[in-house]
Specification:
InterPro entries: DUF6586. By secondary structure, the chain is mainly α. It has six helices and no strands.
Length: 165
């Protein structure tokens, strides 16, 4: 049973939950390294949620015996040409810019963008300098919890529909 595809999805959802719990604790902590610990736990939660998404996609592809069922990337799995209801629903969610799935994928992709140093103006001519674009706020524990719940609910619903008859 440990070699079933769903175990990977379940493990990733579980470890995302642990990282979210540790993130909440770090955010409430007053120790010197609390901000660094919070960032590390935030990244761990995103990593595990993205892994759970990949695991769910691999579950679906494995159940339907789709080509590329072992692809190691979410984008590859979403790009499988064969259609099934679960994969179609995930594609629709991923394509909608306002969906939780789209936000999860964007937050995960942002982990791989190097930080930018603040730009200093060349000279001070008496003008007040403001930033052109506000910096994005980091994903908070509440948002991560919502994404985890949504992903877990999808996995359970999809598994009910994919039962062999």
């Amino acid at each position: 049973m440990a070699q079933e595809r769903y175990t990977r999805t379940n493990q990733k959802l579980y470890f995302a939950g642990l990282a979210i719990k540790a993130l909440r604790e770090a955010e409430q902590s007053a120790v010197l390294d609390a901000a660094g610990r919070a960032q590390a736990e935030r990244e761990a939660a995103l990593f595990h949620l993205h892994g759970a998404l990949l695991g769910l996609l691999q579950e679906i592809a494995g159940f339907y015996r789709l080509p590329g069922a072992d692809a190691p990337a979410v984008e590859s799995m979403l790009g499988i040409a064969v259609d099934c209801p679960e994969l179609a629903e995930l594609r629709q969610l991923a394509a909608r810019g306002d969906s939780w799935l789209s936000a999860l994928r964007e937050a995960h992709a942002a982990l791989f963008v190097p930080p930018l140093a603040p730009r200093k103006p060349a000279e001070n001519d008496g003008l007040i300098v403001t930033s052109a674009a506000p910096s994005a706020l980091p994903v908070d524990a509440g948002m991560l919890t919502v994404w985890q719940s949504e992903l877990k609910a999808l996995a359970l619903r999809f598994r009910e529909a994919m039962v062999d008859s």
